[in-house]
């Protein structure tokens, strides 16, 4: 695996599809897992301890930034947070939370919504030094 998409709930899968598609089109191995930082913290932490061959994590955050924050605090890998446009604030709460991570909890933060997910995938490819030329994919 090279890229792991970590989603907080099953309902995040459709949102993550555009990013998953870009990673797959680039020929990069990936996995998609669902672990809620709020409802399944032990499962999330066990998953993070078991990581093998993952080089970048893309974490989808709904109404908070708990998921990308806990991941970034737990592993020494690049973590890209993508705010999902849900809840009464349409993802603004997650965006603000992500960009205000404390020291030593680095989360690269993308914009809210589909453009943010596509940018997260493209940024992951750049981290992996597999960046497509402009206009490709």
Question: How would you portray this structure in words?
Answer:
The chain has 137 residues and is of the alpha/beta class. It has a single domain (3-127), classed as Rossmann fold (3-Layer(aba) Sandwich). The protein contains five helices and five strands. A five-stranded parallel β-sheet has the order 2-1-3-4-5, with helices on both faces. α1 (13-25) packs parallel to α5 (114-127). The model has no long low-confidence stretch (mean pLDDT 92).
Number of strands: 5
Number of domains: 1
Named CATH architecture: 3-Layer(aba) Sandwich
Largest sheet: 5 strands, parallel
Structural class: alpha/beta
Which runs of at least 5 residues are low in confidence (pLDDT < 50)? none
| Number of helical elements | 5
End-to-end Cα distance, whole Å, is 20 Å
Mean pLDDT: 92
Give the tags.
17% strand, 137 residues, 5 strands, single chain, Rossmann fold, five-stranded parallel β-sheet, 39% helix, alpha/beta
What is the fold's blueprint, element by element?
Layout (H helix, E strand, L loop, with lengths): L2 E5 L5 H13 L4 E5 L6 H9 L6 E6 L4 H9 L4 E5 L8 H8 L8 E2 L4 H14 L10
Parallel strand pairs: 1-2, 1-3, 3-4, 4-5
Helix pairs in contact: 1-5
Summarize the structure.
This protein has 137 residues and is an alpha/beta fold.
